Amino acid sequence: MTPTPRSLRSLLFADRYRSDKEDVVANFYVPAFSVATTYSRAVGYFTSTSLALFARGIAEFAERGGTMRLVASPQLNEDDIVDMERGYDVREIVERATLRELDRDSPDAVLDGLGLLGRLIAEARLDVKLAFVEQEGRVGIYHEKIGIFRDGSGDLIAFTGSSNETYGGLMANFESVEVYRGWVPGDGKRALRMETDFQALWADQTPHLTVERFPDVARERLINLGNNRPQRPLPGRDDALTPPKTVTTGPARLALPEGLKVRDYQRQAVEAWFRQQGRGIIKMATGTGKTKTAMIATTKLAEVLHQREQPLVLLILAPLTHLVDQWITEVEGFGVRPVAVYESSQKWLATVEEQLAAARMGQRSVVALVATNASFAGEKFQSVLSRISLPILVIADEAHNLGSSTYRSLLPSNATYRLALSATPERWFDDDGTDALVNYFGPIAFELGIGKAIEMGALCRYVYVPRLIELNHTETTLYADLSARIARLAVGNSLDDIDPNSPLGFLLRQRAGVLGHAAGKLSILTADLKARRDEWFQLIYCAEGRRPSEPADPPGPKQIDEVMNLVGNELHLSAHSYVSETPRAERSVLLRRFASGDSLRALVAMRCLDEGVDIPDARVGYLLASSSNPRQFIQRRGRLLRPAEGKERAEIIDYLAVPPSGLPTNFNVERALLVRELERANEFGRLSENYATTLQVLRPLKERYQLMNM
Hints:
Layout: H1 8-13, H2 21-26, E1 34-39, H3 48-63, E2 67-72, H4 78-85, H5 90-102, H6 108-122, E3 126-135, E4 138-141, E5 146-150, E6 156-160, H7 167-171, E7 178-181, H8 187-202, E8 209-213, H9 216-228, H10 264-275, E9 279-284, H11 290-307, E10 312-318, H12 321-333, E11 339-341, H13 349-360, E12 366-372, H14 373-376, H15 379-386, E13 392-396, H16 405-408, E14 417-421, H17 431-441, E15 444-448, H18 450-455, E16 461-470, H19 473-489, H20 503-516, H21 520-531, E17 538-541, H22 559-570, E18 575-579, H23 584-596, E19 602-606, E20 620-623, H24 630-641, E21 649-658, H25 667-686, H26 691-704
Parallel strand pairs: 1-2, 2-3, 9-14, 9-15, 10-12, 10-13, 11-12, 13-14, 16-21, 17-19, 17-20, 18-19, 20-21
Antiparallel strand pairs: 1-5, 3-4, 3-8, 5-6, 6-7
Helix pairs in contact: 3-6, 5-9, 6-9, 10-11, 19-20, 25-26
């Protein structure tokens, strides 16, 4: 065995260099050195024996008393990168990617090398971290190659550059390595700078880079492999120069996921849609599986077109980005990775054009696009859409949103197949928009109401608890003043079709705000929360904006701030707000924490957690917001009725603020407002398990306003 050099200086002058690639690396391994280096691949991405040789080099270095810190790039595939950009937990994705590499069928040489790495990790001779680029919502590969060697005497060597561990990199590329010696004038400053850069990298302090610990699960897997795998001699040559085998796979096609149980009503909905020549509206109660029903229909349509040797362009439209993310996950489950069309067109335009070109040439059977309504309406996407001559299926999620004048004129006339999904396709106070949706998508093909869905077990049973809360003195005064002004403006007008942007519409919103922000709701909420303080999966819906005040007074507090203070500071319950300003990445984390059942007891929402958010574990809902919009309160009820394991029933607690009796206001105007509140209570109570109790609670209010017929 060649004598080991005594120091870095003697190493550089020792006549030990040979042409063999592995020995060039091994020459840097000297006693009592600590090594810091980076490598641009995850462990499982090495060619079969280059990993073994890499491990052997570290082992030889460790035998001489050295330690090594290694920063590598995880082998992220397209799924991993998209999930990161969609805000999913980075640690979970890195762990998944690392385990995927370790789970691959590998030759013995690779397994021997992995086992050796595991033993070095167990002996604390090797520590690994994983790095990737994360900038402006995009994820990239960490491809830097630097190394720092320092011995016990304080001498330093740094190098940068290397060839890629690929066939093309080793056979065709022209590569170079620069080496800086710390004791040489001019070199020393560069070497120290590189050492400082690496220390910042190791501490996750490098701008635009994210550095994660090597996943604990993968670390234990390597250590166990090292303990259980026999220590065989490692190969003497690297097979990296052997051209890799070409693996060909056919184009992705839609298929029903393995284990998916198609319910009878879903099959009936699909058949009804096909009977209408692939056009129509599926009106199904929130939580009954509209998304899967639509994907089942899409899969069957794609099969028919495939038999005709025709591709399918699937365009899914959703109002919000988090719904786009949910649809992407759903479509992936059916075997095709869709293109997310939102935010900057630089992220999706080239991919869309490429996939459409492949479909036109018969190289792709399905092109799946999932777009927000806003991006769909953009000029660039409309230009792409207008040039498509292939069969198009448009699926509109929460289709009522597309009935607005902004969107309905942009729906593609060249779409042969059309499917609208909504629990409430009728647009509130907008008959023209509702008619436009029916004219474009076709009539209702299938309908499943909430009562039938509960009866068949597609939704869970629930109890409904209305709480009647009287306004306090200040609120009553403001309520009476607003009612008087409304009465003067409402002469000869119906309050059912008032323009919300008119002066009368503004006053109506103000008065509804008085009811929604009634201070008495918080004291009752406190008692209700205390009675359920040991329960998980609770949702609290707050009124929008601030508490209304007299014109000369400053606006009141936000109800959501008051509720968060109550839940967190006073009751010491784990909770988090969930509002429109909550970043998309944070929303994903919050929903996962909520679903875990051991992190967040409650989510406190304002203008969120309505359309499309999938939180089946939610069991208790507190409705502080006084919404008379039937779509909004139906959506909120739907969030709570989705079935989940261990969930027998849900509970809905509705806080209804009412003025005190004997208030000197216009009776008819006041009665018209209370009609809307009672319509919501009736709708909730009608299908609950305790409807008789609900009627008893509401009876005094109905008698006061002569509404016993409701």
